[in-house]
Amino acid sequence: MLGVGLIHLPFLLMDHPIPFSRLLIVFGSSFFFFLFASSAYAQAGCCSRHGGVDRCNPNTGYFLCNDGSQSPSCTCEVPKASSASSSEAPSPVEPTPSTTFSDVAASSPYATAISWAKDTGIIQGYSDGTFRPDSSINRAELMKILVKGGLKMDPTTAAGCFPDVTEGWFTSYVCYAASQQWVKGYPDGQFHPENNLNDAEALKMIVVSLVAADKVSAGSECDQSQWYGMYLCTAEQQQIVTADEFNAGEMISRGKVTQWLYNALNGNPLSSSNDLSFQPDPRTKTSGCLVNGSYPDHACTPGAVFSVTADEVCTPGYSSGVRSVSESTKNQVYTEYGIQTHSTGEYEVDHFISLELGGSNDIANLFPEAAEPSPGFHEKDKVENYLHQQLCSGSMTLSEAQREISTDWVSVYRSMGQ
């Protein structure tokens, strides 16, 4: 009978061991199978130089190490979705708030950023007391983080901005971001909120949403060979990221996103050489809205603006390029203002702060403006054109034009001698 007493397996101790699922040890005609795919020995070998194995990343099928790194060759078994649910993408699940994070040690490289984001209400943990800093983050989750980080409040934007964003906790965040042109859909017209993000995709969203437009760099000093080149360049210039922590195709983690958000907002305030100081009040009412003469109900329609510069809005074709108000949103505006029926030409759903003055498509900037009595929407159109001319000629700043249209446009109209 042939006996094998010991088999030396040096490849188990390598940083990237040879993948295998079974080891066969033969003693004569007896066969013994030892399953090592998920054993502590195999896992330890995967992350022996990175603090040991943390867990299996279900989004990538590779082991995550305790230092946050991920081995490109240490695979782990990810449970397959059942056939009943594999035909359609699952809806994103919102984390349940937790007051403490048991998996974020003080020594974690993300500890300061996570603590800051939790204290400011931007992020939340799970009901089991964890934050899961190494877990991937999807498009819906990042939209909520970015909107709460930028607005310091929850938006009231209507759902329906994408065919697959019609209900759920994430709809108002995604639709607000879409109204601000922070995000766009896929070629199929969907948003795909459940899709996880890589570093490049997440970085673009952070830069577009949190960095003033005139700070986004597309100069010769930036690498233009990759689509994300100018966003990475901008992020480096604004001290949001460093080149050595950016890996374009790697799935970004919740911890890294939080760190980048902290870098963008904490100690790196948004700034612009083009006056961006005008900020409309928040929207506080969504029903029972009443028009006040030639002005909307301020609680329902306080106005909302894009983060743009005078140079941008003065570019020919700007307004038509950013205009995006769906029929469902228009219908919601009429409903909020109690208008059940109307004839053609009686009203128009108007941008309170016009697009040509940097206004946004958010519902907080929309109201049903009547043609009569005068001054109505025809007269306001003339004021918008006049203020646009004043802005682009350098006679007033962008914030001055936005303040004029949203606080006293009727006086401007009368002063024009129309």
Q: What do these coordinates show?
A:
With 418 residues, this protein is of the alpha+beta class. It folds into three domains: 10-75, no CATH class; 111-265, no CATH class; 310-415, no CATH class. The protein is built from 13 helices and seven strands. The protein has a three-stranded antiparallel β-sheet. Strands 1-2 form a two-stranded antiparallel sheet. A two-stranded antiparallel ribbon has the order 6-7. Helix 2 (111-119) crosses helix 7, helix 3 packs across helix 4 (171-179) and helix 3 (139-151) packs parallel to helix 5. It is elongated and about 80 Å long. The model is unreliable at 1-42, 79-87 and 267-276 (pLDDT under 50).
Strand content: 5-15%
Distance between the termini: 109 Å
**In the residues, how many domains can be counted?**
3
Radius of gyration: 27 Å
If strands are numbered along the chain, what order do they take across the biggest sheet? 3-4-5
Could you give the count of β-strands?
7
List the helices and strands in order. Answer: EEHEEEHHHHHHHHHEEHHH
State the main characteristics:
single chain; 418 residues; 13 helices; elongated
Q: Care to give the gist of this entry?
A:
This protein has 13 helices and seven strands. By secondary structure, the protein is α+β, with helices and mostly antiparallel strands. Helix 5 packs across helix 6, helix 5 (199-210) runs parallel beside helix 7 (254-265) and helix 11 packs across helix 13.
